Amino acid sequence: LQVLAIGEAAVEQLIESQIHVDVALDRSSLKSVFPAIEAYVGGRESIAGLNFLIPSAGTARESFESQLADAGARVDAVIAYRTTIEKQKLSQLKALFVGGGVYCVAFTCPSGVEEFAQLFDTDDLSLFLIETKVACIDSKTRDAAIRFALTPAIVPDEPSIAALASLIVSALAGP
After folding, report:
1. Distance, CA of 62 to CA of 111 (rounded, Å)
2. Do 28 and 90 contact (CB within 8 A), yes or no?
3. Alpha-carbon distance 39 to 66, whole Å?
4. How far is CA 172 from CA 17, 53, 112, 142, 166, in A?
5. At 7, phi and psi to the nearest 5?
6. 90-106 burial, b for 16+ CB within 10 Å, e for fewer?
7. Percent of the chain's residues with pLDDT above 90
8. Could you give phi then psi for residue 110, rounded to 5 degrees?
9. In whole angstroms, what is the distance from residue 136 CA to residue 113 CA?
């Protein structure tokens, strides 16, 4: 049994539970999960035939799960926790985003981006915000959005709510 943990909180919880962590990654480095596993087991060929248990909230399938399956591994995704007590409302919200029902989502701080990603239990928010414009109040928030696979289209020169709102209204009005 080998254990890969994603995020500082998960690593701490596992260590407190006296579970050995073989590979630990930052929450924002989900794209490096497959390469980390590949390096740990000694190459892509070594992945074939391995079994992976992926605990999640069941709201999204991460790209590394598909990469593992494509490499010949067995991947069992198990719903092990909830990111919200109202799963139906989360599903409705997800459908709004995926279906293009939301024009713009605005983030006013990096932690807002992180909390939004945790709500959907993913580090690839581009899966949900396909047709949705992303607005960020400043460069730090923009950098956080980029870490979660978003491409912010609206970032004001001045980091203020008024400047952000003005840019969003201008984007709504169109050219």
Report:
1. 21
2. no
3. 17
4. 50, 44, 22, 20, 10
5. 100, 145
6. beebbeebeeeeeeebb
7. 19
8. -60, -40
9. 9
Token reading at 145? 């959005």
Q: Which residue has the higher pLDDT, 167 or 122?
A: 167
DSSP 130: S
Q: What is the rounded distance in angstroms from the CA atom of residue 168 to the CA atom of residue 133?
A: 9
Q: Which residues pair with 105 in a beta bridge?
A: 134
Residue 42 CB neighbour total at 10 angstroms:
9
Classify residue 41 by its DSSP letter: H
Radius of gyration of the chain (CA): 18
pLDDT digit string, tens, across residues 118-132: 887 787 888 888 888
d(CA 76, CA 62): 12
Reading the block at residue 41, the tokens are 């087991």
Secondary-structure percent of the chain, ordered helix, strand, coil, rounded to 5: 45, 15, 40
**Helical spans, DSSP H, in the chain:** 8-16, 33-41, 63-70, 87-98, 110-120, 139-147, 161-173
Supply 172's token pair: 């709504």
Classify burial at 107, counting beta carbons within 10 Å of its beta carbon; exposed 0-12, middle 13-18, buried 19 or more: buried
Burial 47-71 (b: 16+ CB within 10 A, else e): beeeebebebbebbebbbbebbeeb
